[in-house]
From TrEMBL:
Gene3D superfamilies: 2.60.40.1220. The keyword Endoplasmic reticulum does not apply. Its main location: other. Residues 1-27 form the signal peptide. It comes from Micromonospora haikouensis. This is CopC domain-containing protein. Residues 33-126 form the CopC domain. GO terms for molecular function: copper ion binding. The chain crosses the membrane at residues 164-186. Residues 133-155 are annotated as: Disordered. Keywords: Copper, Membrane, Metal-binding, Signal, Transmembrane, Transmembrane helix. GO terms for biological process: copper ion transport; response to copper ion. It is found in: Cell envelope. InterPro entries: CopC/D, CopC_dom, Cu-Rt/internalin_Ig-like, Ig_E-set.
Amino acid sequence: MRRPVRHPRVAGAAAALAALAVLVAPAAPAAAHNSLASATPAADARLATPPSEITVRFLQKLNPDLTTVVLSDAARRVVPTGVPVVAGTRATVTVAEPLPDGTYTVAYRVVSTDGHPVQGSYRFTVADPAATAAAPVSPPPTAAPASGAAGRAGRDGGPGPLTVAAGVALLACALVGGALAAGRVLRRRRAR
């Protein structure tokens, strides 16, 4: 009995279709694989003193190369932070300078070790009653931090200034994640 002949182009097309399916699949099933378990500071927290670092913890282990955490102020300007340090299910960024009173948004995009992307955001407020009025935090001199940037919708529901750049960055991360997942599937099939 003859075994069917498999062509490399057919396998490549199947991998491309699998990657495309990952990209166009709804976000809800991806969120079932991993989700935000906790954060410090917590969502909607009101802090008397500004935090020196931001930590987000997920239910499953994170891929350090595909983890982005961005802090922005009420005017949607990116606040300088360190590169995310990933340890298992946690990602931590150090805040570069003390935060003046105000509302801040933490936006994150992570890819779990199983290849599924998870993204979201939450807010917290710094309200030190003893603090004097401080100058607003200025954006870093570069267009985007090394760890990436995530856009945030404005209060009126319109797109924020980083929405397009963040969308491109998120799409690129999703493409890489899909290609990695498709490659794993092909390697497993070839091993059989």
